[in-house]
Amino acid sequence: MPVIRANTSIVTQINVFTAPEGGQQALIDFLAEAARAAREVPGWLSASLHRSLDGTRVVNYAQSQDGEAARRVIEHLQRRGRLEANKALGTAHPGLYEVAFTLDRD
């Protein structure tokens, strides 16, 4: 389950993909399999996939315990060809982030 709290060591990879027309579900399926592969890496915490309502984008919100764990996950997926293979399913715009602020309804 995602943890969205400020001032933690958790690193979130947010990757926005642009999917080709009709390719959104194939990309989601591929990313779900990649998340299952990443799950075995020490320090991996969670992955959440979001589909845009217009069918053109997929957002992957993946969390790791800290920056080193995030690097291990990326290296793990690179070694398995997952990062290169997803290029056939969409254009990625990745970044690593930390939560700076949250506000909840009390």
Describe the structure.
It is a single chain. The protein has 106 residues and is an alpha+beta fold. The chain has a single domain (11-97), classed as 2-Layer Sandwich (Alpha-Beta Plaits). The protein contains three helices and four strands, in the order βαββααβ. It has helices spanning 24-38, 67-79, 82-85, and strands at residues 11-18, 44-51, 57-64, 91-97. The protein has a four-stranded antiparallel beta sheet with strand order 2-3-1-4. Strand 2 (44-51) and strand 3 (57-64) form a beta hairpin. The longest helix has 15 residues, at 24-38. The chain is globular, with a radius of gyration of 14 Å. 21% of the residues are buried. The mean pLDDT is 94.
What's the SSE blueprint?
Blueprint: E1 11-18, H1 24-38, E2 44-51, E3 57-64, H2 67-79, H3 82-85, E4 91-97
Antiparallel strand pairs: 1-3, 1-4, 2-3
Q: So what's the overall shape? A: globular
- Fraction of helical residues: 25-40%
Radius of gyration: 14 Å
User: Uncertain spans, ≥5 residues at pLDDT below 50?
Assistant: none
Strand content: 25-35%
**What is the distance, rounded to the nearest whole angstrom, between the alpha carbons of the first and last residues?**
21 Å
Count of helical stretches? 3
Number of domains: 1
Tell me the name of the CATH class: Alpha Beta
